[in-house]
């Protein structure tokens, strides 16, 4: 083989390498820019059906639908939507398979019409229960899960929500007024940073282990498997509510820590049907000094396998 032919082959190999790098770079750019591929959600279709945009995190697309139409009061506190009235739906896709799951905030009169429509459209109900106690009017929370094409799933959710008073369409223009509370001491005592939304400090603490469904799909913390803690300023300090995400062995140690801090346990139940490991969700309530409550919540978090 001549030197010229060897040089020619090396040149051709170099050109092919350059072309492959350009193709890979172009594909990466399209993915980063949110272009639709076979294993990515078509969020534009979801937005068009629901009428509202969401947030993408860890491969999960989550849309919040707070019940701003409801005026709910508990323990002398007017409940802000961000404290305990936030309906939501979260979509995840693997290959050609999509999953939706979430939590709907409903009046008692809305529960059965919504259940019927979800079941009619192939969405499974995984829990119906309370989150807080002695609130007026009575509010129920419905957890659900569905599998299939994201467009079909979004239409099923829209049909069901139309049977409730849940505000649909674009979110109101302008951000809700922020509180005047300095949350630094609370976050320092809790040991976790959060963000304020609509006058409520919201904190999410994911678990360390992966949560999987029976068909092998991972359920990230952003899809409802992170402990959620919300703080709303009150005349006494703050009202707190949310839910701890726990395995069976963690349930009673967490209860004991919450009770020591004067925090009420308001509900204990499941949210899903076939997850591994098996999880329990514990809801709580208190209205007291903010730093005191944050310290009690921290002690409870340390009894779980949370990513603190």
Structural summary, described in words:
It is built from eight helices and 14 strands. The chain is an alpha+beta fold. It has two domains: 138 residues, Alpha-Beta Plaits, CATH 3.30.70; 134 residues, Alpha-Beta Plaits. The strands form three sheets. It has a six-stranded antiparallel beta sheet. The protein has a six-stranded antiparallel beta sheet with strand order 9-10-11-12-14-13. The protein has a two-stranded antiparallel ribbon with strand order 3-4. Strand 9 and strand 10 form a beta hairpin. Helix 4 packs antiparallel against helix 5, helix 6 runs parallel beside helix 8 and helix 7 runs antiparallel to helix 8. It starts with a helix and ends in a 7-residue tail after the last helix. About 7% of the residues have low confidence.
CATH class of the largest domain: Alpha Beta
Radius of gyration, taken over Cα atoms and rounded to an integer in Å: 23 Å
Number of helices: 8
Average residue pLDDT: 89
Unreliable segments of 5+ consecutive residues: 16-38
Overall structural class, as computed from helix and strand content, comes to: alpha+beta
The CATH architecture of the largest domain comes to 2-Layer Sandwich
Strand order of the largest sheet: 1-2-5-6-8-7
Ends apart, CA distance between termini: 64 Å
Q: Can you give the helix content as a percent range?
A: 25-40%
Shape summary: globular
Order of H and E elements? HHEEEEHEEHEEHHEEEEHEEH
Please outline the major beta sheet: 6 strands, antiparallel
Number of strands: 14
Question: Into how many domains do the coordinates divide?
Answer: 2
Strand fraction equals: 25-35%
CATH topology title of the largest domain: Alpha-Beta Plaits
